[in-house]
Every structure is written in structure tokens, then in C-alpha cells.
Design a protein that fits this description.
Blueprint lengths: L2 H5 L7 E2 L3 E4 L11 E3 L3 E7 L2 E5 L2 E5 L2 E5 L4 E7 L4 E7 L1 H8 L9 H7 L2 E3 L2 H19 L6 H22 L13 H16 L6 H7 L4 H12 L3 H17 L6 H7 L5 H12 L3 H8 L1
Antiparallel strand pairs: 1-2, 2-9, 3-8, 4-7, 4-9, 5-6, 5-8, 7-10
Helix pairs in contact: 2-5, 4-5, 6-8, 6-9, 10-11
């Protein structure tokens, strides 16, 4: 489910339009068993333990945070009886307006969260982040507040600054780290946004480079510098994500899936999928069933 779809499961006091959704500990149980996708998510566990599956990998989370980009998928699994957790969703537009080019964390953080999306924090660090979420919860519930949007941006920004501060505490080179988003970071963030929106139909790197008004060579260099991987890796990752979701519905033929994902024919799709997942689409479907 996406952020918009999830908003329907919670009272209006938990959200601000389509921009922000905050699930507090008292409502967190509603997320159990739900697969969350295409959503920018911060999941903070303050107490107890929570099992999650991120992009097919299983994790056990205790007093830590999941920082998930909208190109990833998370399944909320089993929860301990004493679980106290928050889930914060925010659109790209809201986050950009709140942070105003401020870098909420070390340069290496965007690269790390692609491979290690779970971070462990001390009780003090967790408490400081939770305090900002509590304030955000209160302003979201106050629908009569004249500056509700502005206050929500402020508390979202405060949460990210506490998160960034906690990350810096774990780095020796924190004193020399830049505090503001560079042109390179801006291109990277917008590239991920474009991939999330268009990868199903647009497989060519040229499309993304032209949309960002830079050359393919320059885009490749920026993405490799910030993530350690090529742009095509992330395009393929998004296509495969959609392909697996479609393959799980046996009412959709392989040929229809190939057409939906804009492949020239079924053979081209099968070749692509097997290269990415080491099994054919049909074998994946049978294994899933």
C-alpha cells in the first residue's frame, strides 16, 4: 500500500492532506501484515521488537530506525507485546519544502540506507527523535491551527535534524561534513523520484538524463559517486519490483506483463527478468505459488 492508501486506514487527525501521515504507537498495530511501497518512510522503534521484511530481506528491529526511500518495499511483520513504534510518511514535495536544501545527516547516509536501511541508536537519541514526532502528532490533530502546515514542516525538520545529529555522532569525520545539499545530491534525489514515477515505461537512461537537463555520462558519474551503483541498476531494480508484483497475480499472463512494463516482446522481458533474478518469470511465479 502507498502513503495515500494507508491514510484511509487512520483518522484524519493522523495526516495533513496527502503530504504527511504519522502513525503513533497506539495505532501502529494497524500496519501489521501490510506491505508498504512507493512511500518515503521513517519507522522508529522506541521499545520492544519488530520484524520487518525490506526488499525481500528479513530484519529484527529493536530501538532503532528504518529510513526507507520510496523505491523500496517494506512488509510489517510480527510485533512484541511491548512494542512502541512510530511510522512517519512524507511526500517528496513536503520533505523538500520542510528541509529547504538542508542536509539532514552525513554525506554517506543516502548510500548507506540503500544497503543498510536499519540504524541502531541509543535510548537518549531515540527519545529526542520521539519527542519531535509527539509534537508533530499534536499539530496534525489540531485542525483549527492557523499555521498547521508551517508547524508540521517545522517538526518534520526538527525530527530530521535530530536524526542527522544522531548519525553525525557515530562518525568521526562529522566536524568536516557539509551541512547543505549540493547540486550532486539534488540530482540524485530527483533521479530517484523520476525512476519511481517512470521506470515502468521508461527504461532508457537518456530519458532521465534529458529530464534532469544533464548528459548521460554526467548522470552516471553523479549516481555512482553518491551511491556506488550505476543509474541503470536502480532503473532495473524498480522494473523488477513491478514485475514481481505482477507475477504474483497468476491471472495476468507473462505476455501481458511484458507489455505493461514496455518490453518489445515476451522474450525480451523473460531475458531481462532472468538476468536480474537468475530465474525465469514462470519459475518465479511457480515458486511464489
Amino acid at each position: 500500500m502507498t502513503q495515500t492508501e494507508l491514510s484511509n486506514l487512520f483518522p484524519s487527525t493522523c495526516s495533513l492532506g496527502d503530504w504527511v501521515l504519522l502513525v503513533s504507537p497506539s495505532d501502529f498495530f494497524r500496519l501489521k501484515g501490510i506491505t508498504i511501497e512507493k512511500s518515503r518512510l521513517f519507522l522508529l522503534v522506541c521499545q520492544g521488537s519488530l520484524s520487518v521484511t525490506i526488499n525481500g530481506k528479513n530484519f529484527e528491529l529493536t530501538q532503532g530506525l528504518v529510513d526507507l526511500l520510496d523505491t523500496s518495499t517494506l512488509l510489517v511483520g510480527s510485533c512484541s507485546n511491548d512494542l512502541e513504534a512510530w511510522a512517519l510518511f512524507a511526500t517528496f514535495e513536503f520533505a523538500s519544502a520542510s528541509l529547504k536544501n538542508l542536509r539532514p545527516g552525513p554525506m554517506i547516509h543516502p548510500q548507506e540506507r540503500l544497503n543498510i536501511p536499519i540504524m541502531d541508536f541509543t535510548e537518549k537519541e531515540t527519545t529526542l527523535m520521539q519527542r519531535q514526532l509527539q509534537q508533530l502528532k499534536e499539530i496534525l490533530a489540531d485542525k483549527n491551527h492557523y499555521y498547521q502546515r508551517e508547524m508540521a514542516e517545522l517538526y518534520f525538520r526538527s525530527f530530521n535534524l535530530e536524526l542527522g545529529n544522531a548519525l553525525y555522532r557515530h562518525l568521526k569525520e562529522a566536524d568536516d561534513a557539509p551541512k547543505y545539499i549540493s547540486r550532486r545530491d539534488f540530482v540524485t534525489l530527483n533521479f530517484f523520484k523520476l525512476v519511481n514515477e517512470h521506470a515502468v515505461r521508461e527504461h532508457r537512461l537518456n530519458f532521465y538524463a534529458q529530464t534532469l537537463c544533464i548528459s548521460e555520462k554526467h548522470l552516471t558519474r553523479i549516481i555512482k559517486e553518491t551511491t556506488g551503483k550505476t543509474p541503470y541498476f536502480f532503473i532495473c531494480q524498480e522494473i523488477v519490483h513491478h514485475a514481481m508484483a505482477l507475477l504474483e497475480d497468476n491471472k495476468i499472463s507473462i505476455g501481458e506483463i511484458a507489455d505493461t512494463l514496455n518490453f518489445s516482446d515476451q522474450a525480451a522481458f523473460c531475458k531481462f527478468f532472468k538476468k536480474q533474478k537468475t530465474v525465469s518469470p514462470l519459475a518465479y511465479r511457480r515458486r511464489y505459488e
